[in-house]
UniProtKB/TrEMBL annotation:
The keyword Cell wall biogenesis/degradation does not apply. Keywords: Membrane, Transmembrane, Transmembrane helix. The chain crosses the membrane at residues 12-32, 61-81, 93-110, 116-134, 173-194, 200-218. It comes from Planococcus shixiaomingii. This is YoaK family protein.
C-alpha cells in the first residue's frame, strides 16, 4: 500500500511538472499572439482588462474577459472531475490528460480559422482546468501557472529555513524554486518556437500532452500497476 501511494505521488509530481511547463509554454503564445493576454495569471489578466476598460480601449478589453470567463469555467470543471474520480488512483490521470489532449488537438487543427476570442476562451478554460487538477509537486501544494503565490510561499519557507532551521521548509523551498524555474523554461521554450513559426506552438503543446498521456497509459499497464 505504501509503495503504491509513493508511486502515485511520483506520477502526480511528474504530471504537475509537465503542466507547469505547458502553462508557461501556452502563456508565451497568448501573450505574443493574442493581444498580450495571460491564460494562467488572472491577476495580470484583470489588470490588463481594467486598464483597457478605463482607458476606453473597449475592443482590446474583450479578449481579457473571454480568458477570465474561460478560466473560471475550467476551474469549476476541474473541481467536478476531481470530485468524481477520487477513488480511481492512477487511472484518473489518463482521463484528465485525455480531455486536455483532445482540446489541444482541436485548437491546433483549427487555429487558422478560429476567432481570437474563442481561442482565448478555450485556452483559458484549459488553464483553469490544469491549475485545479495538477497542483502537487512532491509534498508541496503549488499553482502550476500562477507564480505570485509560489514566490510568496517560496520566501516564507526560506525564512523558516534560515531562522528556524526547519527541515520541511527546505523541501518546500526546493520544490517551489523548481516550480518557478520550470515555468520560466516553459515560457522561454514557447517564445523560441513562436519565433520560428507561431502555429507550431499549439502543435507542440498537443504533442507534449499526447506523449504525457501515452506515458501515463504505459505506466498504468506496467506489472506494478496491475
Amino acid at each position: 500500500m505504501e509503495k503504491k501511494k509513493t508511486e502515485v505521488t511520483q506520477i502526480s509530481t511528474t504530471l504537475t511538472m509537465l503542466a507547469i511547463f505547458l502553462m508557461g509554454f501556452i502563456d508565451a503564445y497568448t501573450f505574443l499572439q493574442q493581444n498580450e493576454a495571460f491564460v494562467t495569471a488572472q491577476t495580470g489578466n484583470l489588470v490588463s482588462l481594467s486598464v483597457k476598460l478605463f482607458s476606453g480601449q473597449w475592443k482590446e478589453a474583450i479578449s481579457h474577459v473571454w480568458v477570465f470567463v474561460g478560466f473560471a469555467i475550467g476551474a469549476f470543471a476541474g473541481e467536478a472531475v476531481i470530485d468524481r474520480s477520487r477513488d480511481k488512483g492512477i487511472k484518473k490521470y489518463r482521463f484528465y490528460l485525455l480531455i486536455q489532449t483532445i482540446l489541444l488537438l482541436a485548437l491546433a487543427l483549427a487555429q487558422e480559422h478560429v476567432a481570437g476570442a474563442i481561442m482565448l476562451f478555450v485556452l483559458g478554460t484549459l488553464a483553469g482546468y490544469e491549475l485545479t487538477i495538477f497542483r502537487k509537486f512532491r509534498g508541496t501544494s503549488v499553482n502550476n501557472g500562477i507564480m505570485t503565490g509560489n514566490t510568496k510561499n517560496l520566501m516564507g519557507h526560506l525564512y523558516q529555513l534560515i531562522f528556524n532551521n526547519d527541515s520541511k521548509a527546505k523541501s518546500h523551498f526546493n520544490n517551489l524554486a523548481a516550480t518557478v524555474l520550470i515555468f520560466m523554461f516553459g515560457v522561454g521554450a514557447g517564445t523560441l518556437i513562436i519565433q520560428v513559426n507561431a502555429s507550431y506552438n499549439l502543435w507542440a503543446a498537443f504533442i507534449i500532452s499526447l506523449l504525457t498521456f501515452g506515458w501515463t497509459t504505459a505506466h498504468q499497464a506496467s506489472p506494478s500497476q496491475r
